[in-house]
Write a structure and sequence with these properties.
Helix content is about 35%, strand content about 30%. The chain has one domain (about 20-195): Gamma-glutamyl cyclotransferase-like (Hypothetical upf0131 protein ytfp). Helix 5 packs across helix 6 (about 190-200). The chain has six helices and seven strands. By secondary structure, it is of the alpha+beta class. InterPro entries: ChaC (IPR006840), GGCT-like (IPR013024), GGCT-like_sf (IPR036568).
Length: about 210
């Protein structure tokens, strides 16, 4: 067995173990909620039954993780969003049918958990229809991808120049801001950043 195959199998086994641990208290019958605050809002990539605007308290949306692959490269890393501690975050909660939970969680692990940048947690998500308990991917400040405190000039320069497997970092930032506005979410800080990066804000999709 090659080292690459062994590593892949090991990663799959670790992901399965992590998913099982997180779902240890799930009864297998109830639907489950997943909270999105970045690209999950406009490209969830999984089956969902309902979505609601939701607020998670104690954390805020921040361009704080270096991306060396999907939205950047080793020579010109981009920045992607994480939920950093402090404040609150307005996003979207997706309800996943019980029958889809296992498949959806494994899809999410492949997408969000390959490099240890996030920590999955169950948190209270406040919605207009009441509070739900949702899966939230929080920033792992101890990971090697954490950007820490960087200047605005450094941040904007990185976003402008970075291109990765999934496209330009600038497109990712703009698309996230547009998706938030399309949902009726006003992230003034992100909106101001987009203005500085590319001029006038583009109309939000209907």
């Amino acid at each position: 067995m090659s080292s690459e195959v062994a590593a892949a199998r090991s990663g799959t086994a670790c992901a399965s173990s992590s998913v099982e641990a997180l779902l240890a208290d799930w009864n297998g019958i109830d639907d489950i909620w997943v909270f999105g605050y970045g690209s999950l809002i406009w490209r969830p990539g999984f089956a969902w039954q309902e979505r609601r605007l939701a607020t998670v308290r104690g954390y805020h949306r921040s361009l704080c993780l270096w991306s060396h692959d999907h939205r950047g490269s080793p020579d010109a890393p981009g920045l992607v969003f994480g939920l950093d501690r402090g404040g609150c975050c307005r996003g979207v909660a997706f309800r996943v049918a019980a029958a889809d939970v296992i498949a959806v969680f494994h899809t999410l692990w492949q997408r969000e958990m390959p490099n240890g940048a996030y920590v999955p947690r169950w948190l209270a998500c406040s919605t207009e229809a009441g509070q739900v308990r949702g899966l939230v991917f929080l920033l792992n400040r101890g990971c090697s991808h954490y950007a820490g405190e960087i200047s605005e000039d450094h941040l904007m320069a990185s976003v402008r120049r970075a291109v990765g497997q999934s496209g330009a970092c600038l497109d990712y930032v703009i698309e996230t801001e547009r998706a938030l506005r399309a949902c009726g979410i006003d992230d003034g800080r992100l909106g101001e950043l987009v203005r500085k990066l590319g001029g006038a804000l583009q109309p939000a999709a209907a």
